[in-house]
Amino acid sequence: MPSDQTSAPLLAFGAHPDDIEFGAGGIIAKETRAGRPARFVVCSRGEAGTNGTPAQRMREAKAAAKILGATIEFLELDGDAHLELKSAHALALADIIRRMQPGIVLAPTLETNQHPDHWRLGTLVRDATRLARYGGVAELRARPAHAIGQLFFYALSPGSEPVGAQPILIDISAPEIVAGWTAAMTAHTSQRKTRNYAELQLARARVLGLDAGVAHAQALWPNDPLLFDSLAPLARGARRF
After folding, report:
1. What is the pTM of this model?
2. Secondary structure (DSSP) of the chain
3. Does residue 231 lie in a domain region?
């Protein structure tokens, strides 16, 4: 594991070609503009979607990743709307984690009241982050074991936010960050035929930001307790009404 987690890559998993951008694109834009490498792994081609062909959706995802300063690759598991919880899938994701050596991993939340591919992928990623650090897993011995710094979950809708859990909020208010995130979301032109998802996500970020005393914010939920060396990083709290 890299000694400096602030510069280790950020690895984001999405079940569909637009999930990462809609759920955490503002955070990723902020991280890459600060110099952190970002890698996207998309686990379907969006072939079950109402609008857009798989080829079109892959092109859109590649364009969006480029806007956010991230690399992207696609992983074929069970296909869009058919993802199942399998140990083989967790091992495949763990192999990616070992190959990419990330410091932070992002995945969809585990709340079940959302697209089933989302929470199932979140569960598989959670399992994979554990498997990646176990040196004795036979299927993973081709690469050295790797322990990530932290796994965070992102929510694609209010209904997929973890119930009863306080998120951490990331201030993404800088105009260039919001503009980059917006451009990445609108790169998914096929999905705009279904709903104005970019406007929905911007509205969510605006509400979170206003409640915290900033212009825009996005939320993440940590899988494990956060550990700090001092109180300094905790000195800024969200100002609520």
Report:
1. 0.95
2. --S-TTTSPEEEEESSTTHHHHHHHHHHHHHHHTT--EEEEE----TTSSSS-HHHHHHHHHHHHHHHTEEEEE--SS-TT-----HHHHHHHHHHHHHH--SEEEEE---SSS-HHHHHHHHHHHHHHHHTT-TT-GGGTTS-----SEEEEE-SSGGGSPTT-PPEEEE--SHHHHHHHHHHHHT-GGGGGT--HHHHHHHHHHHHHHHHTSS-EEEEEESS----SSSGGGS------
3. no
For the segment 27-48, what is each residue's pLDDT rounded down to a tens digit? 999 999 999 999 999 999 999 9
* pLDDT surpassing 90 at residue 232: no
Domain interval for residue 221 = 10-225
Beta bridge partners of 169: 219
The answer to whether residues 108 and 119 touch, using CB atoms and an 8 Å cutoff, is yes
Minimum mean pLDDT range among 5-14, 44-53, 153-162: 5-14
What tens digit of pLDDT does each residue of 200-231 get? Answer: 999 999 999 999 999 999 999 999 999 999 99
Residue 1 covered by a domain: no
* 230 within a domain of the structure (yes/no): no
Q: CATH no. for residue 199?
A: 3.40.50.10320
CB 80 within 8 A of CB 118: no
Task: Judge whether 241 lies within some domain.
Answer: no
- Based on the structure, what is the number of domains in the chain? 1
Q: Is the pLDDT of residue 239 over 70?
A: no
